[in-house]
Design goal:
This protein has 15 helices and no strands. The chain has about 375 residues and is mainly alpha-helical. The protein has a single domain, classed as Amino acid/polyamine transporter I, CATH 1.20.1740. The chain is globular. The termini are far apart.
Length: about 375
């Protein structure tokens, strides 16, 4: 009989990884081309798979329960703990900014010709920040329902998109967008923050390796098919947030359904992340309630008003920074845990030294590529 906890853990990992990044993947495929996108996607998939497996083994080698911040302090010291804490804070603030941008885009699709996406983003920020102030998290069942609904909307869009794919919309490569994919793809596949949670879900810890592999693989395949099909429909007209560019091809009714579920999905994610970081500041770092709230609520707004409203640019920057810092830290912790771990893990990877250097090199070179492309 199949272990139910394995299925639940796999679903949790997939649900954690699939997020805002998916809305930008068709644009990346359309602009960079199939070969360039496939190259980046395979490399980043392998790097993220390795990092998730590293983190899983770190957890299994350690008796105490931690998150990445705690493992960083235990194996690499307090300075690294501070660095990881800053990275996580930056990542959450960046994600909140992304959700504000997307909420405005989705509302402008649902209610066209009413207000601009900028105005809708501000309205979304006011409403969501109010709920954060009250301490209202999204209800888990509602969040699950919205994610299921969004996935169903994707399937619906797939079905109506497939007959409209035009071979002429595909390009193999465009050197002008050669460095575009890295940050977006990395942001889309980061999911190691869920590994401690799925380890707790599993009744058989030896299945952690299988769950990580299957969860990452299913997500990556889904992402690439999504990007391939939708870029094949809209071609050079593919927009950065995908749904808007599909309106002329699929009609408003189908796209509005996607926009509604997309809006609820990013709203529930906003509440979860904002409350998580707010409570972290209050309980772990002793921030006063109002100070924690104003930091969480107003910092993304300040960035938004300062002009950071380009969806692709923001997720590329956030993905690159978080991936670089946390990816390298996980790799270094993994090396230390191999020597200093307190228990025999349920799985132990046989990783050649060159692969460690390869992962770090990909993260560093990818960061350089983003600096070259955007600056």
């Amino acid at each position: 009989m199949r272990d139910k906890s394995t299925l639940l853990a796999t679903g949790t990992l997939i649900g954690t990884i699939i997020g805002a990044g998916i809305f930008g993947i068709p644009y990346i495929v359309a602009k960079s081309g199939l070969l360039v996108s496939l190259f980046y996607f395979l490399i980043i998939f392998l790097v993220c798979l390795a990092l998730n497996l590293f983190f899983g083994e770190i957890i299994l080698r350690t008796k105490e329960n931690h998150r990445l911040v705690g493992y960083a302090e235990k194996y690499l010291g307090k300075k690294t703990k501070v660095l990881v804490a800053l990275s996580i804070t930056f990542g959450v603030i960046g994600a909140l900014l992304i959700y504000i941008i997307l909420a405005g885009r989705f509302l402008s699709i649902i209610f066209p010709a009413c207000l601009s996406s900028f105005q809708f983003s501000l309205i979304s920020w006011v409403i969501l920040s109010f709920f954060v102030f009250l301490g209202i998290r999204s209800i888990a069942s509602v969040e699950l329902l919205m994610n299921v609904g969004l996935f169903a909307a994707f399937i619906l869009i797939f079905v109506f998109s497939f007959p409209k794919i035009e071979a002429s919309n595909f390009i193999l490569a465009d050197k002008a967008y050669l460095f575009l994919p890295f940050g977006v793809f990395l942001f889309s596949l980061i999911g190691w923050n869920a590994v401690p949670e799925i380890e707790k879900i599993l009744t058989k810890k030896k299945n952690l390796k299988k769950v990580i592999f299957s969860g990452l693989t299913i997500t990556a395949v889904f992402y690439f098919i999504f990007g391939l099909i939708l870029s094949g429909v809209s071609g050079e007209n593919t927009t950065k947030e995908v749904f808007e560019g599909l309106l002329p091809f699929l009609g408003s009714k189908i796209i509005v359904v996607g926009g509604i579920f997309g809006l609820f999905a990013v709203s529930t994610s906003f509440l979860v992340l904002a409350n998580y970081l707010k409570n972290t500041l209050i309980f772990d770092y002793r921030f006063p309630y109002l100070s924690a709230f104003f930091l969480i609520a107003f910092l993304p707004l300040v960035l938004f008003l300062a002009g950071l409203r380009e969806f692709i640019t923001v997720i590329a920057f956030v993905g690159t920074f978080v991936g670089l810092i946390e990816g390298i830290v996980i790799t270094l912790i993994y090396k230390r845990a191999k020597k200093l771990g307190q228990r025999t893990p349920e799985y132990s990877l046989k990783i050649p030294r060159f692969l460690i250097y390869f992962i770090i090199s990909v993260l560093v070179l990818g960061t350089i590529s983003q600096i070259i492309y955007y600056f």
